Amino acid sequence: MEKKDSRLDGLELDVAVIGTGFGGLYALKKARDMMGLNVQAFDDAGDVGGTWYWNRYPGCRVDTECHIYQYSFDHDLMKQWEWSERYPAQPEVLKYFNAVADRHDLRRSINFSTRIIKAEWSDETARWTLTTRDGKQITTQFVIEAVGLLSSTKYPKFEGEETFRGEIHHAARWPHEGIDLNDRKVAVIGTGSTGTQMLVALAPQVGHLNVLQRTPQYVVPLGCGPVSAEHIAAINRDPVAFRNRHLNTAAVFGFDESTVSALEVTPERVNEVYENAWQEGNGFAFMLKTFSDITTDEAANATATDFIRGKIAEIVRDPEVVARLTPHDFYAKRPLATDNYYQTFNRDNVTLVDVRKDPVKRVVETGIELESGRVIDLDVIIYATGFDAITGNYLKIETTGTNGLRLADKWAENPTALLGMMNAGFPNLFMIYGPFSPFTSQPLVHEWQVDWITGAIRETLDRGAQRFEVLLKTELDWVARCNEVAAGSLFSKTDSWINGSNVEGKPRTNYFYMSGMKSYMADVMEFTNDSYRGFSISGSAPDPVNSRNSDVGEQSATARRATGS
Ligand code: NA7
After folding, report:
1. Please, which residues have CB within 8 angstroms of residue 531's CB and are 6 or more apart in sequence?
2. Closest by CA position to 83, among listed 91, 92, 74
3. How many Å apart are CA 482 and CA 514, to the nearest integer?
4. Is this model's pTM higher than 0.90 or not?
5. Does ligand 1 come within 6 angstroms of the Cβ of 502?
6. Cα dihedral sign for 55, 58, 63, 65?
């Protein structure tokens, strides 16, 4: 898809949407077709799909039930679309995005291959100026950033890459034409969701696969298979009720979370519950549907880790590989699920390399040299090294709000934001699934947030006002509440992208609202239904309320010191 930017420079909009994944496409649809606003969307990608446009690596698939991992706003599409598998592979998800874009004629309002690199707010005009990578400027009253939770790709910096005679790729930037890996010597670096999916898919195809693992992870089966007849029937009966039922769970993964503690049943029962969950598949179900306290109580967590460690020892034949594959931290990262994961390490053409014990020293002409001096002979190196999650893509846009406040400064030490959707000091700028969003699956929650955001825009316009913003105190209170809940969660004690510890120099802190979607919706509606209490909806002239946001940076720091957050 060619970019459509000949008339971009000087364009004036009501709403600019950045990103065309799940959140962005629906924001465009809602603001343009349901509200009649002048809207354009922008995406660096060559077509729709967001993360599903970029992530085309072998084995890439959704690990959430397909009926939850789709839009609900188009009831007919929801009833008609037939997913071929319970957990669709990437090409099918992309096909779905294309169908949505075609059905709603969205591409005519999207500027592809157009990266927004700067966003500047003007107090005088109460508008944002967006600058594209090639210097074109667009002004807009509102900005909706749908830039992705896990989209800012993290590349390791290994010395000597330029000397390598083979190919180096990142899983999240997989070439559209594919890569010929047949019979080649391949290394996959990283064993998160990406690495685990990819290595299982690659093993039967490549000559030899070297899995460079730094930290072992707990991986359960996915349970790929036919779609759930129960879900299809429920959607056909009443799509709205289906959507509402699942939004009213904690994590929105298509099941009710358990309310039973792992510590209040017999060890035999614990084992039975985990065995059933293992057979059924799905990482989120294994973590959240089995027992209620796996992510909050160390002893309960140990029941899950003991079970999975037992499975590793049972499945993997070589005791040395078992030892390398066995994790020792809490089961409190984003849960992984891939069919045949541990079985893959029984293959003769797969070698598990422990790069914690013997780290990568550098890339050399023929492969990867480890600290021990051992050289792994390779044709292809693939990074599955993850993302600068949550805040990464927002910070790639140089954003300046009221009184010259830079987002990069505001988020330098301890990022704060409200509801995952707003940021004090940045009027009329909305985020979809930004920091302090509920910790859930994405599509239905994106839709819910878009509905809230467009409601806020509607309210501003209906009041004849020009700016909608959150007061700093509202934001800090929200973050303090989020942090209090997160402090009781094992996610905060376990290194992963969830708390920023996967990126050097990034604040290691809480970035989520961990009380669940049901409670999140109630909390957000409490503000909203009370005439947007805690927000300011005003004209463009500075007023006493807005001036309270005038030094958000300093106030944030003071409040953080006071709350100890
Ligand atoms: P993750 O889950 O962040 O995993 C990245 C993996 O890469 C993980 O195993 C890391 O080891 C490893 N890694 C990162 N940097 C290095 C270096 N320099 N050397 C060796 N190994 C490294 O990213 P994914 O892409 O798999 O998944 C991200 C999310 O996308 C996923 O949760 C889904 O929601 C979709 P570490 O654990 O840091 O030791």
Report:
1. none
2. 92
3. 7
4. yes
5. yes
6. positive
Q: Are 332 and 295 in contact (CB under 8 A)?
A: yes
- State whether the beta carbon of 193 lies less than 6 angstroms from ligand 1: yes
Distance 201 CA to ligand 1 centre (A): 17
Radius of gyration of the chain (CA): 24
* Closest-CA residue to 181 (of 334, 366, 381): 381
Q: Which two tokens stand for residue 77?
A: 């599409």
Handedness of CA 251, 383, 51, 502 (dihedral sign): positive
Strands 208-213 and 350-354: parallel
253 CB less than 6 Å from ligand 1? no
C-alpha span between 565 and 476 (Å, rounded): 10
Residue of 193, 336, 437, 495 best suited for mutating to test ligand 1, as the one with most atoms within 8 Å of CB? 193
For residue 23, how far is its CA from the centre of ligand 1 (angstroms)? 24
Any idea what the Cα angle at residue 446 is, between residues 535 and 492, rounded to 5°?
Answer: 80
Distance, CA 521 to ligand 1 centroid (Å)? 31
- Amino acid letter at 137? Q
In ligand 1, the atom with minimum distance to the C-alpha of 158 is 18
Tokens of 83: 């997913």
Please name the residues in contact with 264: beta carbons below 8 A apart, sequence gap of 6 or more.
none
Torsion of CA 244, 246, 252, 256, to 10 degrees: 140
Token code pair at residue 128: 């944002």
- Alpha helices by DSSP H, listed for 129-262, are 193-202, 229-237, 239-247
Give the DSSP letter string of 84-104: SSSS-BHHHHHHHHHHHHHHT
Tokens matching residue 398: 């140089």
Q: What single letter denotes the amino acid at residue 217?
A: Q
Domains, the chain, with CATH or none: 11-48+106-152+389-563 (3.50.50.60), 219-383 (no CATH)
Per-residue pLDDT tens digits of the chain, which is 565 residues long: 444 555 799 999 999 999 999 999 999 999 999 999 999 999 999 999 999 999 999 999 999 999 999 999 999 999 999 999 999 999 999 999 999 999 999 999 999 999 999 999 999 999 999 999 999 999 999 999 999 999 999 999 899 999 999 999 999 999 999 999 999 999 999 999 999 999 999 999 999 999 999 999 999 999 999 998 999 999 999 999 999 999 999 999 999 999 999 999 999 999 999 999 999 999 999 999 999 999 999 999 999 999 999 999 999 999 999 999 999 999 999 999 999 999 999 999 999 999 999 999 999 999 999 999 999 999 999 999 999 999 999 999 999 999 999 999 999 999 999 999 999 999 999 999 999 999 999 999 999 999 999 999 999 999 999 999 999 999 999 999 999 999 999 999 999 999 999 999 999 999 999 999 999 999 999 999 999 999 999 985 344 344 444 445 454 443 343 333 3
Nearest CA to ligand 1 atom 18: 156
Q: Which two tokens stand for residue 545?
A: 């309320």
CB-count burial class (<10 Å; 0-12, 13-18, 19+) for 205 = middle
